[in-house]
# Entry
Amino acid sequence: MKILKFGGTSVGSADNIRRVKDIIQNQNNRVVIVVSALGGITDRLIKAATLAAEGDGQYASEVKQIVEIHQDSIKSLFSDEQKQQEVFDMVAPEFDELNSITKGVFLIRELSRKSLESISGIGERLSSKIIASFLNAKWFDSRKYIKTYVEYGRSQVDLEATNKLLLEVVPKLDKISLFPGFISSNKKGDNTTLGRGGSDYTASLLAASFDADMLEIWTDVNGFMTADPKVISRAYCIEHLSYAEAMELSHFGAKVIYPPTILPAYQKKIPITIKNTFNPETPGTLIDGQKETPKPRQIKGISSIKNVSLLTVHGMGMVGVSGISMRLFASLAAEEINVILISQASSENSISIVIESDQSEKARKAIEKEFKRELDDRHISGIVIDDQMAVVAIVGENMKHTTGMSGLLFNSVGKNGVNVYAIAQGASELNISFVIKERDIKKALNVIHESFFLSDYSRLNLFLVGKGTVGSKLLNKIAAQSEKLMNENRLKIRLIGLAGRKGMLLNNEGMDASTAIENLEKESIPGTVEDFRDRIIDMNLANSVFVDCSASGEVAAIYQSLLDANVSVVTANKIASSSSYSTYKKLKDTAREKGIRFFFETNVGAGLPIIAPINDLVRSGDKIVRLEAVLSGTLNYIVNTLSEDKPLSEVIIEAKEKGFSEPDPRVDLSGTDVVRKSLILARESGYNLEEADVQVEPFVPQEYLDLPSLEEFMRKVKELDAPFEERRQKALKEGKRLRYGARLTSEGKAVVGLMEVDRTHPFYDLEGSNNIVLIWSEHYFEHPMQIKGYGAGADVTAAGVFADIIKVANV
Ligand SMILES: NC(=O)C1=CN([C@@H]2O[C@H](COP(=O)(O)OP(=O)(O)OC[C@H]3O[C@@H](n4cnc5c(N)ncnc54)[C@H](OP(=O)(O)O)[C@@H]3O)[C@@H](O)[C@H]2O)C=CC1
Ligand SMILES: N[C@@H](CC=O)C(=O)O
# Structure
């Protein structure tokens, strides 16, 4: 025998009831059906009762609508007029009862518990009679068999009496039998109910007493999901759960099944299947006691509850005093306040509990009353309520005795800046629950889902400033590589924001990198880079990365606040890391403390790996004692390209056109770009260098650099064509070449300037825009480590930035 329970949505309309008929017709064995009220009817009944108790005459029209909804269903389900009339007559007593009780409540302006239970159960009585007629099922009145008593202000099922009565029904069951869910009665015969969602419980009680082979809960979702699908679009249906896992998940926000339902089925080892009435072919979720092979993931699902408050009672006078918890929980129980989570540290200094927010003030008053003396004596120093909180829990039987579960959980939320206010884990190790701010729920669920591999890919949310030479190439690479990254690295890079000087474009769901620049031109929202930063922080997305492809100090100035908000930063812009040492250090320290990333590999040598090997040397205990380098792609290109026919002024323009120079080439020609790179190299090598420690000889005389505009500079720089050619010729005659080099000594000083090198020097053969870095260290003391290759250019730089972005994702 099978028990099938259909919820309110499953029987919410005549069409849906026809679907139920199809499902029933496909059953081979005897079935017992349990139905809820038609969708939304219980809420309407409670509303009508409340309006009546408030003396609001509107209750009558609410009742009228309830009657009409049922009459319409009957008309739609039964085409035969005689049959229609038969069903109308069958439900007439329920309509009469509804009218008379609500009228009584309206007249005396009082809604007793007894009246409320009678009114709220009428929906199931109506739906069950209508559906039983439609299915030709034998109808049973659940109130006769399901017996309750009151304990702690709630109706509890009298299991012994119920089981005895239900066993007597067994011989009377038909091929198709139907019971209303939710409703019951007490010893005196008064109508009672099993609590909202109680129809599931009715079905489980019947399954246990009738010794059913299977309990099927038919609802409007495919089953238990790995997380709330409204928050996590990648959440998927869990195929199998143990009874204990299902109990934990159903308690924690996943409103798929009413929690008490699990116990009767568990005790009789009856499997439960969650099925979707609107998608009956999908297997749904099977809940049973069978061991799973292969061993399933440690975590089966993530639950969350919103609209809760964290209430903390604290005071030194609580330490070592027995009975405090007993009094606290008794005072809450007396007010029928349900405690969702409890957390107390071994110091006993405070006890934190989570309750529904609409009960927080009632809870405060109850605790203040109970602990008046302790509060007056300051043994308890206060009761603090944090509202707008949420509880998140990870659930899975396989967490038991598996080390690292909480480490992974709290590491992943912590790295994303989600503060954890309280934690609870039972010794069963089945559930780890923690309390966070409600605004962080989406972020927390996303990172947990990813961390525990419940998702089949990770996501990185990208915010890019700069769509010029480097930024535009980066966008091309993202567009071209995204499919490969997804297929081979299971990494999805989502471009969420793009900004330039005039404004920004944002899309929570991600935008197409190949058309983003075009769309920014068309639809940009005006705003500064600070506005862009505020939007990034407000969006509060997990795994966010800010990418700077500008050359702007204003953009560099927002890194600290982004890192403070747990947004990683990847930058091609050298300004931040070459500004004061304290700024550079604070940025790096913040990233380290928060477990996020601040990467700037392209700041030196563009796409060449220079910073990472230096970091490796330093971290492995080596000491860098000397560095010599050619660090300017632009200046190396210039000295290599100058000839009798190619004067300096022309080659400067070429370097810009080839994407080697800075947006303003004077930054290269002044030596500033090389000074910045030298500072970064020195700092990464362990030297605390400031700009003043770098002695610089500009590539062109200072008087040219002091000219008021770039246009004027470009006009006047022609005057230098002849002197530069002269210098080149002189060097050539001596068998030498010009190089713009940088040298860092172990005294922590750096020198930057133009030099002449002969063919014995490693710089001599450095072609085109190439860079070279020679590193002498305690390990590399005789022969320096050499890193050499393209040191500038949009393509290599964009590739370097992209590599840093992927490193953030840690794949
Ligand atoms: N070229 C190379 O070989 C290498 C370059 N780099 C670095 O890459 C960075 C980018 O260089 P490049 O692409 O040539 O520069 P571009 O001038 O071509 O592009 C700069 C971009 O930054 C935007 N921008 C500038 N200021 C702001 C601001 N205040 N707010 C918002 N957006 C701003 C500009 O916006 P808008 O489009 O609206 O003008 C533009 O899109 C530089 O820092 C450079 O040093 C690093 C290594 C090598
Ligand atoms: N302008 C720079 C580009 C990279 O930082 C250079 O010429 O090297």
Q: What stands out?
A: The domain at 458-606 is CATH 3.40.50.720 (Rossmann fold). Residues 81-108 form the longest helix (28 residues). The two ends are 51 Å apart (CA to CA).
